[in-house]
Structures are given as C-alpha cells and as structure tokens.
Amino acid sequence: xxxxxxxxxxxxxxxxxxxxxxxxxxxxxxxxxxxxxxxxxxxxxxxxxxxxxxxxxxxxxxxxxxxxxxxxxxxxxxxxxxxxxxxxxxxxxxxxxxxxxxxxxxxxxxxxxxxxxxxxxxxxxxxxxxxxxxxxxxxxxxxxxxxxxxxxxxxxxxxxxxxxxxxxxxxxxxxxxxxxxxxxxxxxxxxxxxxxxxxxxxxxxxxxxxxxxxxxxxxxxxxxxxxxxxxxxxxxxxxxxxxxxxxxxxxxxxxxxxxxxxxxxxxxxxxxxxxxxxxxxxxxxxxxxxxxxxxxxxxxxxxxxxxxxxxxxxxxxxxxxxxxxxxxxxxxxxxxxxxxxxxxxxxxxxxxxxxxxxxxxxxxxxxxxxxxxxxxxxxxxxxxxxxxxx
Length: 390
Known about the structure:
With 390 residues, this protein is of the alpha/beta class. The protein has one domain (3-83, 123-379): TIM Barrel (Alpha-Beta Barrel). It contains 14 helices and 14 strands. The protein has a seven-stranded parallel beta sheet with strand order 4-9-10-11-12-13-14. 46% of the residues are buried. Residues 385-390 have low confidence and may be disordered.
C-alpha cells in the first residue's frame, strides 16, 4: 500500500495496513536541528548540511534518506517567500535577529539559543482602525509565493505517492494579531477595545482568504490536507474563555474554514496546542476535521477520552507520544510503553496519524526518538487492506 492511500484511509476513518507515520511531514511535527543532527549521527546516516523547515522554531527539514528508511508517509509543501521580502539577519550584540514580512521582530541568543523569540510588535502603538488600514501588510497574491507550487504538489502526490500536506501562509488569526499588537495589548483589546481587536483579526482573515484562493487553485486534486492554526490553549485551560471564543473568534474561523471547504476536497487540519478540550465542539462546528498536536499532557486532553468523545468527527494527527515528559526524560522502554498506549487509544477504526506532540525538541536523546519509531512500527499494524486511491 502506498503512503497516499494509507493517509487517505486514515483521514476517512478507515483502517489501512498500518497507522500512517508523520515525522517531518509538517512544520508542526518535525525535529529541532540539534536533535536532528544527533539522530542522523546515531543512525549512521551521511553527514550533510541541515536545512531549516522553519527558522523561527529552528526545525530541520527531514532528509529523504531518513524519510525512506523510516517509512514516513507525508510530504510537506509550503509557499515561497514573497518577491518583496528577503530575510536579513541583524547583529544585535548577544543576539542575532531579523524582521519577518509582517514587520515582527525576532531574536535568538548567539550562544545557547534554541529558538527565535519576538522582541518587536509593529502595531503595538495602534489606536484606531485607521492605523491598521494604513499598515503595509504582506501581499498574499505575490506570484513568487506560488512559483513551482503546483509542480511540487503534483510530484509528491502523483509520482512519490505520498500524502501531501499544504501549509498556510502565516500563523493563525488570533495568534498573528497578538504577535502584531503584542500579547498584553491584544488580550487587553479583547476586553476594552474589541473594535480594534476584531478589525485587526479581520484584516488577517482577508489576507488568508486571498492566499487560499490562489493556493488551492494551484493545488487542484494534488493535496490531501490543508493546514490552519491558532494556539488557543495553555497547559491547564484555554487562553481565552469559550464565551469569548464563540463571540469573537469562532465567526472568523467559520468564514475561513467554509471558504477552504468550498475550494478543495482536502481535509482541514487545525493546529492548537494546550488544554483546548472545552473548545473542541466549537472547532468541529466551525469546520475542522483534523486536530493537531493533541497535547496529551495538558489538562483534559487524555487520549482515550478524546477518541471516545470526538473520534467519529475528528482525525487525531499527533498525540503519539507525550513529548513534554516521556520522550524528553523517559527511558527508551518508557517511550515504547507510552507509544503503545497512545496507539491503542487513538488508532482503532482509523482516524489517526502517528506523530509526536508537536516538534521533537533539541534536548531529546536520539535513543528515545528511535524507540518511538520502533514502537510505532511494532504496534501500529492493522489487519485489513483496502484498494489504492487515485
């Protein structure tokens, strides 16, 4: 059975020959560059320059030799940068930094830095909707974004026969608004300046709609999953109340998701970390079909309970191992036991793509990463087989 068929079956709540595997198939399920280099050395793979899938998170692009060796089923495809944007690194003394195409400033320590963190929010001083309207937002229709996109998608879907994951242009509506305003400003806006908060989020929504109009036209039938995101959860509860989500954010999500559904048969993948269980029914109603990363270590996110309550409506993409505790600090045997538990919880009846909870971090031992893969290999088998999809 080829990978694309295997993923299609999982996405349609059917059991294939094996639970599909995603390691590096998305920018939300890959490996930090430090852990990736150690893993390649541990596995005896050739030394080569590590390419970044995501500069902000310092996430590696998993090379094809490892993808083939481990049987990864998913190919990540993302738009290019706009023609008007070039990332320029700035020497900031103890830090190195840059500004992204939205004007947000990011920096990372030169010594011992693991990620880029925000230091500048371009709309921090905005007072009115006019301030937002005057801001030079990125052009989602810049043709450079889509150069070669259709060809890459076709190659992955038709020639490699991999499941195809198409990335969004930017982070989520609420998330990006907070990045542009600054977290303190934006969360205060939701209470005392709702007009400004909604105006900014709607401007981001408009950009997203224009991106998906072009991207999905380019994709045609050569995409299986399209990705959107909004980090809505902290460790113990949602970042905003369900009432605030339903009143201010959910209508924007519904508009975005309906727009996407009207233009593709691909499943809608939605990423949100944290304890989001109180929001899951609303997210399903808004139109999500695939939930990631399934943070099983957060409050209320027990894998068996989630499958029991939402397994008929959602595909769980992630949740394959507790990365917060077990994968990082456990023994290889503990890793294998946790993987077995998560597969037993989430795999029955299909509707599960095996991936760690978010990206594998830089301090994870290679022995544990290999143990995770070995446990998937052993415990992820189904007994049924199905016909190949087109």
